[in-house]
Amino acid sequence: MSDEAARLGQMARQAIGAGDFANAEALLLQSLQAGGNPSSTWLNIAAVRRQRSNLDGAIQALREVLTRDARNFPALLMNAALLERQGQMPAAAAAYAVAVANAPQATLLDAPTRQALDHGLDVVTRHTRELDGFIRDHVASSESRCTTAEKRRLDTFIHTTLRTRPRYRQEPVEYFYPGLPSIEFYDRAEFDWLEAFEASTERVRAELDTVLRDDDPALTPYIHYDPHMPLDQWRELNHSPRWSAYHLYEQGRAVAQRWAKLPATVAALSKLPQAEVPRRSPSAMFSVLAPQTRIPPHHGVANFRLVVHLPLILPGSCGFRVGGETREWRLGEAWVFDDTIEHEAWNDSDQVRVIFICDIWSPRLSPEERGAIAATIEAMDRFSGVTPSGAI
Q1: Residue 381 or residue 129, greater confidence
Q2: pLDDT tens digits for range 87-121
Q3: Angle between helices 73-85 and 111-143 in degrees, nearest 10
Q4: CA 233 vs CA 67, 207, 221, 223: distances in Å
Q5: Are 343 and 365 in contact (CB under 8 A)?
Q6: β-bridge mates for residue 335, sequence order
Q7: Three-class SS of 108-146
Q8: Structural domains present in the chain
Q9: CA 341 to CA 181: how far, in whole Å?
Q10: Sign of torsion over alpha carbons 307, 311, 315, 321
Q11: How far apart (Å, rounded) are the C-alpha atoms in residues 23 and 2?
């Protein structure tokens, strides 16, 4: 900045302090011509024009700032406030949302700016609520003709469009098969075996009681990484009995002695189209979650198979989230979900919670695709000489 620009800027600040906004604006414009900092000078011009009730001129000055720095937070916040002052509420709400997204940490803001930002959040919230109601009134006729599953998808669409719910997608840790939909919880109608599977709940529960009563040594910590591995969110549960599992398969093969103890459970499994990949899958287990324990958000390994939950012991205060939908288990009521979408579970009670968990092929895959997927993974393992350490 030139000495002349600095001198004019100082004179402009003095004029602002004296309330002489017309002279301040003239001095700031001269400062620009003398090589003053464009962003800060235009921002000051916008503030002066706002004081002079020249709202259009102030907005134009802010556009000069944002042309040079599109994420300039003071300019974004002032622009939103000016649009609100002009009564352009939809535009103001959108502008406030952008300002909020680009705001520094609250601790770095002075009190007036924090207050202005909080007001902007209120404007965005009110606008979103009103828009949500308007949309739902407008689509009510069309929605009434939708199935239950279609209504759920429509509800998610509205929420994600309004940014009131995050957009969750499949993010498999390892295997991604293209063309399969990101569905958090699948509709029951897709699985004609589901009711028969649920009908086995009491018999499976009785066999689980035997496992728990005998304190079977096969009930082991579900998370068991070596110490040198990156543990990330699993550090607290690694090698911990707080989340234990009783596996019916090891490396995709049935464990004979466990199957012999659980004939009703095996019979229930036989009703399911389990995913079969050599030395990888099927998988099935009793999942035992200790009191006051949470399974952190995570993603499954492969999107070509789905996961089935059958609740067996529910003490209350337990929950499960897949993507943007949170559900409570009901005893004997199974559901099917895509575990490659972020999910988590919790047991906030003072008793154990047990779910029977197993996998199935995605119903969107043809028999030929299932065979080709299995052959692909088997070929990768053979070529690399890898012995899989866990199920898919």
Answers
A1: 129
A2: 999 999 999 999 999 999 988 999 999 999 999 99
A3: 60
A4: 41, 32, 15, 11
A5: no
A6: 309
A7: HCCHHHHHHHHHHHHHHHHHHHHHHHHHHHHHHHHHCCC
A8: 3-127 (1.25.40.10), 188-384 (2.60.120.330)
A9: 11
A10: positive
A11: 20
In this structure, are residues 266 and 344 in contact, taking their beta carbons and an 8 Å threshold?
no
Write the CB contacts of 386 (distance below 8 Å, at least 6 apart in sequence).
Answer: 380
- CA distances 173 to 176, 341, 367, 387, Å, are 8, 10, 24, 18
Coil, helix or strand for 295? strand
User: Rounded CA gap, 275 and 149, in Å?
Assistant: 24
Q: Which amino acid is at 153?
A: R
| 52, 43 Cβ separation under 8 angstroms | no
Per the structure block, which two tokens stand in for 297? 């958000």
Residue that has been written with the tokens 């003490």 in this structure: 315
* CA 311/CA 269 separation, integer angstroms: 14
pLDDT at 390: 66
By CB neighbour count within 10 A (0-12 exposed, 13-18 middle, 19+ buried), where does 170 fall? Answer: buried
Report whether the peptide linkage leading into residue 282 is cis, meaning its omega lies within 30 degrees of zero.
yes
The identity of residue 24, as a single letter, is A
pLDDT tens string 11-29? 988 998 999 999 998 999 9
